[in-house]
Amino acid sequence: MKFQRCVRCIMDNKSDKTIRFDRRGYCNYCTDVLKRMPTVYFPNSTGKRKLEKLINQIKHDCKEDKYDCLIGISGGVDSSYILYLGYQYGLRMLAVHIDDGLDNPIAIQNIKNLIDKTGVPLITVKPDHTEYADLLKTLFKASVPNLAFVQDNLIVKSMDEYGRKNHIKYLLDGNNIAHESILERSNGVDFCDKKHIVALQNKFGEVIIRNIEFISLIDRYINWNFISKLKHLRPLNYLSYDLENCIKELENFCDYQYYGGKHYESILTRFLQCYYLPVKFGIDKRKSHFSSLIVSGQMTREEALRKLKEPLYISDELLQKDKKVIADFMNISVEQLEKYISLSPKRQTDYPHSVLNKIAPLARKFRRILE
Ligand SMILES: [Zn+2]
């Protein structure tokens, strides 16, 4: 196949075989987002009005409750900015952090600074180390692309659990159009697919999972949306969510430190995005991230192409350090980790998964229409 790159964003057909281009050379990703953007992203006075209305609605609906909303915090910019924003608007928040043992120390310090400054109560969830490490090892052994599968499932599971336990009506979600409107299509297994995790663990696991609980696709798309009534809100779509400005605001507010790139707040996701995915699967996530910034007007295409040429890891020393941390975490040698990495690549769909994965994109589309 002849190499082709979108002339508006930087998505290409090398890492994504499903991409389509029109006669002008624009891809389906940026074309779809630009069509959708005016209906969901309001970086203007309309957004400010919508945000204020939303906050008033939350306060009104929750005046009898202990909390106005739930927030999942990773120490990354999106969730940190949500917490900061909620504090500015006087919301009574409950924050939940998943400490899987692979947090970037900068992110841990960021969370501490934010919590100290805002006084927001924080629940830190620590999954059973032996089980979690074995689940991670399972993903390496299965040779699948999404090493963050279990991590992502636990985040959603914990939000669901603490939302229910505390009778919280609203979840402020850091997902946003400005920074992540373009996401490369994965190969179709949603991280809420409990059946998939269980099947992988049955095949490759060395430990029986007794303490870690997963969320299933049924819980995610049916119970959560229609029974538990925990409403997901994305307030970052109601302001001009400019990455540099937001980092500066957070720096001034609580000595926040930026950690160098999207999802680098976790050592696992940094390793996944900067080494494992590009080296093993030829996937460079920066393409979708920079493309999102291009369509929201926060980066030029030239700048994105220039940044794409920069090395993924800022230094080989950091890469070696991360490999050692991850190997130690799973109680294996770096040599053994390298052996897992060199296994022939598999797709998530090569392993058993729920038929509901076919329905999930439709459910997302339906939710978008409702939004
Ligand atoms: Zn494009």
Order of helix and strand elements from N to C terminus = HHEHEHEHHEHHHEHHHHHHH
Helix content: 40-55%
**Annotated CATH architecture:** 3-Layer(aba) Sandwich
- CATH-level-4 superfamily name: HUPs
According to CATH, the fold-level topology is Rossmann fold
The CATH top-level class label: Alpha Beta
Number of helix segments?
A: 16
End-to-end distance: 38 Å
- Determine the structural class based on helices, strands and strand pairing: mainly alpha
Mean pLDDT: 92
Tally of domains: 1
Strand order of the largest sheet: 3-2-1-4-5
Please state roughly what percent of the residues sit in beta strands, choosing from under 5%, 5-15%, 15-25%, 25-35%, 35-45% or over 45%: 5-15%
Described by strand count, sense and barrel closure, the largest sheet is:
5 strands, parallel
Low-confidence stretches: none
Beta-strand segment tally: 5
Chemical compounds bound to the protein? zinc ion
**Computed CA radius of gyration, to the nearest angstrom:** 20 Å
Q: Rough shape? A: globular
Provide a short characterization of the protein structure.
With 371 residues, the protein is mostly helical. It contains 16 helices and five strands.
Protein architecture, described:
- By secondary structure, the chain is mainly α.
- It has a single domain (42-370), classed as HUPs (Rossmann fold, 3-Layer(aba) Sandwich).
- Helices cover 51% and strands 5% of the residues.
- It has 16 helices and 5 strands.
- A 5-stranded parallel β-sheet has the order 3-2-1-4-5.
- α4 (105-118) links the parallel β2 (93-98) and β3 (122-125).
- The protein is globular and about 55 Å long.
- The two termini are 38 Å apart.
- The model has no long low-confidence stretch (mean pLDDT 92).
- The chain binds zinc ion (ZN).
